Every structure is written in C-alpha cells, then in structure tokens.
Amino acid sequence: MRTAQQPATRHWRHALAPGGLPLAGHALLMGRKPLQFLASLPAYGDLVELRLGPRPVFLPCHPELVQQVLVNARIYDTGGPVKEKAKPILGNGLITSDWADHRRQRRLVQPAFQAARIATYAEVMERECEAESTAWTARRPIDVSHEMLALTARVTARALFSTDMAPHAVAEIQHCLPIVVEGAYRQAIDPTGLLAKLPLAANRRFDDALTRLNQLIDRMIDDYKAADDGDRGDVLSALFAAQDDETGGTMSDQEIHDQVMTLLLAGIETTASALTWAWFLLGRNPRAEAALHAEVDEVLGGRAPRYADVPRLAYTQRVFSEALRLFPPAWLFTRTTTEATELGGRRLPPASDVLISPYVLHRDPALFPDPESFDPDRWLPERAKDVARGAYLPFGGGSRKCIGDVFGMTEATLALAAIAGRWRMRPIPGTKIRPRPQMSLTAGPLRMIPEPR
Ligand code: HEM
C-alpha cells in the first residue's frame, strides 16, 4: 500500500473550497450548514482546502487519501484545539491520548472488547432490549430519540458495571451524559475558548453533571476494589485485569477512570443516534420495514432475540449499516499532522488540521450510486464488494478504529429485532426532522407511534 511519504502515482485534484470570506474564511458556512457545505466539496477536488479563521484545514474527499490519513496514525495524530478542549473532560484515555501512548492504551483496553466478552455483554443487551420492547403502550406516541438513548445508556452502564449499584449508575448516567455531551460540543466549537469560563447557567449545569459523572466512576472503581471478587464479566473487571503483553504494565485507577469516561461518552449517544435514524428511515420505507418484519418473524418466531441469532439477522444488520451510511453518528473527526508531510501530492505543514468526514464519503454519488436513497440491500455481500475500499467509514479506520464497533453492531441488531418483533413504528404525519450535526449526528426529538404487530 502507498504511504503518505511516497510520491503520488496518480494525479490528484486540489482545490480551495469556494465561498470563503476575508478573515472568517469558511467558518460561517461550516457554522451554519456544515453537512450541506462539506457534502458539496468532493465536486471540487480529491483534497479540498478550507479556511476556518486563519488556519488552513484540509478535507480529503477521496477514500484513498482518507485511508492514507487514517493508517498513518503517527503523522496524522489526534490533536489540535478540539482535543485540548476534550482533555479536561475525558482525561487521558483512548480518544485523547497521543500516538505513542495510544498504542499502549489500546493493547490494555482491547481485551475488554474480545468476542468472548461481547458474548457476556450481550446478555445485558438481550435483557435490556426485551425490557425496552415490552415497556411501551400501544398507540401512545413515544420520542424515539429519548427511548434509544435511555436504552443504550442502560446497556452500556450495565456492561461497564455489573454491580448492585448499576440501577443508580444508570439513572445518574442518563441524567448527566446528555448535559456533558452538549457542553463538550459547545466548548469544542467555541473558537474563543472563553465560553466555558463565563458564569452561565449552562456552564454550571455542565460542571455539575461532569462532577457527578466523575464521582460515579470513582465510586464504581472503589466499589470494585473493595469487593475484591475478581472477574464479574463486565468491562470494569477487564480493565482492572488488563496487563500489557509488551511491558507487563497495568492501568492505574486514574487511567481506568479516564477509559470509563471515554467509553461512556463514545458509546452511548453514537449508537442511540444511529438507532433513531434507523427507525426514522424504516418509517419512510415500507418495503424495507416489511422485509425487516419478515426476517425477524422468520428467525425469532415471536420470541425475544438472543445473541446467537445475530448472524441470522442479516437484513436487520443491513438496515443498521445503511442507517450508519446515511447518518453516520461520527460525521466529522479530525487529525493534526505531527510533521511536514505530503497528501495527494500537496505539501502539508506541521500542525495542519485534517478533517475526516464519513458523511461526505457516504453521500458521494461517485462512491455510492443513488446516495440519498435508503437501500439496505446495497450491503448484500454481492453488492457490498463493489464499494470502494475506505468509502464506508462509520467506525473510522486504522489503529484508532472504533473499539466498540462489534459491541455497537450487536447492541443495535438486538434492539432493532426486539422492537420490530413486537411493534410497527408508525411515523406521525408532518413530522419534520433536521439532522443536527453536533458531537454526534443526532435527529433531535422524533415522535413515532408504536402499533402492536
Ligand atoms: C454505532 C455506534 C458507534 C459509532 C458510529 C462509532 C464511531 C466511532 C468512530 C468513527 C471512531 C473513530 C474516531 C477517530 O478516529 O477519531 C470511534 C472511536 C471510538 N469508539 Fe466508537 N462508535 C460507536 C459505538 C461505540 C461503542 C458502543 C463504544 C464503547 C462501548 C465505542 C467506543 C469508542 C472508543 C473508546 C473510541 C476511541 C478508540 C481509539 O481511539 O482507540 N464506540 N467510534
């Protein structure tokens, strides 16, 4: 494979994004309509330069260039102002660590996400999905976003901490997480860095929610250590047991704390957003909805889904994959160059910011025919093999690829199957949904009517 250091063998098209203003550059366009603006850029080049204030920022629009960035994690490290703002919230965990330390951390956290452990977490998923699907009242409208967030918060909290304190932890996480996610996003996009310092009610709510989450994690860690009962089958036990093959080192309490906070912030809203979009898309596509119901009825025959059913719920998985294509929760993430390098024949100075946008790739008609249409069968093996390598990146790629990808896919498949087994989710006519590109690409409140099947 070609690396970023080798000369390009093909001619890449470079462009400056249109519509920039003196001083502000493209900051206003990015602030107002980031999805439309970014999705318009592949038409101009394979590598497009934007100005966000005085800083040049690069958006690779061709999957090959995106891959070069993702696989060269040493040169294209996570960094820049966004990461600096995330550190007081996430500490030094997988998302905020720099390249060298990330490798060590990943070796230590990876065992918590091995297949055998996912099978254990799946027991929590089965129970919680069943509980969710039996909790609704026929024909009483629900806010799907709210329900999916509550479900993924319960699943993640109970997979992390399988203790008697779990119900308390769930309530605390459900209350605090949305406030922290929203506040973290406000801080991330504040170019002045001053917003967080103002005596605003929103800042006080954020500080309070963050303190409560930190205290909760500390309590869970103290409780685990005091109980001294070995492997409980949860994520926390796996983090305590982890030993680095290369150095023999383990993680300190603070490191475990930071990994737990990272998992909570990375794993709950992402999965919930994609599930919400899946219900929204199914509500507008009766043929896909009918195919989902047919599969669930055939595989489950009226019972609740189990982990062992997941491989046979192939259409259900395709529905989720297609929702992730159209509305990738991680719609934008960034890298910063640690040294001068070359991308697509363009010289990038050290400390250049590079934007990676799965949303841009997933909506590019050159990569996905008829990109706006919801077509789960584009993920049938015989069709999926034609998708260009690196064009579909809902979980990112390279050494920082989502560590929870299988966790999230399993959870979402079980949730879709459990709910579709019982309910037809009817859209409410006239409901308008606008994607909200925030920390995740969320749908905002989405009211639908569950009708018994
Ligand atoms: C559908 C659901 C999910 C989506 C779309 C998603 C997406 C992503 C993406 C795109 C990245 C890479 C970001 C980058 O390269 O900068 C990432 C990283 C990460 N995700 Fe997920 N994620 C999902 C679910 C989860 C779950 C369920 C967990 C944990 C339980 C999780 C934990 C993480 C962590 C810890 C990282 C950082 C990994 C590292 O840097 O080594 N994610 N996720």
From TrEMBL:
- Name residues in a coiled coil: none
Q: Does the keyword NADP apply?
A: no
Q: Which CDD domains match?
A: CYP170A1-like (cd11049)
Q: Which UniProt keywords apply?
A: Heme, Iron, Metal-binding, Monooxygenase, Oxidoreductase
Q: Which Pfam families match?
A: p450
Q: Which Gene3D superfamilies match?
A: Cytochrome P450
Report the GO molecular function annotations.
heme binding; iron ion binding; monooxygenase activity; oxidoreductase activity, acting on paired donors, with incorporation or reduction of molecular oxygen
Origin: domain of life: Bacteria
Does this entry carry the keyword Heme?
yes
Cofactor(s) needed: heme
Matches recorded under InterPro entries: Cyt_P450, Cyt_P450_CS, Cyt_P450_E_grp-IV, Cyt_P450_sf, Cytochrome_P450_Monoox
Record-annotated residues binding heme? 402
Family recorded in the similarity comment: Belongs to the cytochrome P450 family.
Protein name as catalogued: Cytochrome P450
Q: What is the lineage of its organism?
A: Bacteria, Bacillati, Actinomycetota, Actinomycetes, Kitasatosporales
